[in-house]
Amino acid sequence: MLINILMIVFILLTFFIGGFFLTHTNKAFLVFHPESNRNLAGIVKFGGWSLIIIGVVACVATVMQNNVFISMTLLVAVLDIVAVQLMLVHFFPKKSMKTVYILLYNFLKIT
Fold first, then answer.
1. Per-residue DSSP letters for 10-78?
2. What residues does 29 pair with on adjacent strands?
3. Cβ-count burial of 67 within 10 angstroms (0-12 exposed, 13-18 middle, 19+ buried)?
4. Predicted TM-score of the model (pTM)
5. Is the pLDDT of residue 30 over 90?
6. What is the tens place of the pLDDT at every residue in 62-91?
7. CA distance 80 to 47
8. Rounded CA gap, 45 and 34, in Å?
9. Is there a contact between 40 and 34 (Cβ–Cβ < 8 Å)?
10. If you ran DSSP here, which 8-state letter would residue 104 be given?
11. Residue 111, H or E segment
């Protein structure tokens, strides 16, 4: 029963994030400006549609109650989200990246 509740939360998150990406292909969000970069807009659109599709597959997996299918869906979703994030990092502003590197360096220096 708990897996069903968690899958419903996961499905809602994938639909929300996928919809957010699709509505922001022509608007700026966070530090990204897909309206001025066609490649970035394509990545955001791909990320949105892939998350919507994964949400639909996750709905089917939840209704079927097949643990293997649910596990495979979660694995594909994680890989997709990581891939989209890695593609978005390429378009991160250089000034912000310098700040990220400094924070990461200081964190690693402390530990």
1. HHHHHHHHHHHHHHTSSS-BTTB-TTS-HHHHHHHHHHHHHHHHHHHHHHHHHHHT-HHHHHHHHHHHH
2. 32
3. exposed
4. 0.78
5. no
6. 999 999 999 999 999 999 999 999 998 888
7. 8
8. 10
9. yes
10. H
11. none
CA 6, CA 55: separation in Å to the nearest integer? 13
Non-local CB neighbours of 92 within 8 Å, separated by 6+ positions: 31, 32, 100
Write out the two tokens for 87.
């593609």
Confidence (pLDDT) at 97: 65
Bridge partners (DSSP) of residue 32 are 29
Q: Tokens at residue 90, please?
A: 């390429």
Write phi, then psi, for 29 (nearest 5 degrees). -145, 145
Closest CA to 4 of 63, 77, 51: 63
